[in-house]
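Protein record

Derive tokens from sequence
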Amino acid sequence: MNVRPRNETGFTLVEIMVVVAVIGLLAAIAIPNMTRARATSQMNACINNLRQIDGAKQEWALAAGIGGITRPTDAQIQPYLGHGSNGELPSCPADSENSWTTSYNPHSLAELPICLIVTSTHVLTAQ
């Protein structure tokens, strides 16, 4: 009697299910961490933009010899934002419109600029 050896190539259903379960577990761990990291990086970029806006206001006031509660226009502080006179005004990374007017309110010289998109966490604090 000849016994033929079985040619067992491929994976069993149980092995495939274990691999799918492990991939699902890794995805369940990774996706919330990635969204949290994205929100944190957007917050840090927005706060950095607020610092630059405040610095640009102060530089404009110093160069123009103006003080007090004067509010500079967008065109007046734009050259001091580091992009030259033809550069673009920054926008909040969380702003879907990607627009200066919907992202920031620079306020007057005596006040800190604010983010209009995420007012709870995108906040510049006085140092």
User: Anything to note?
Assistant: The chain has a mean pLDDT of 90.
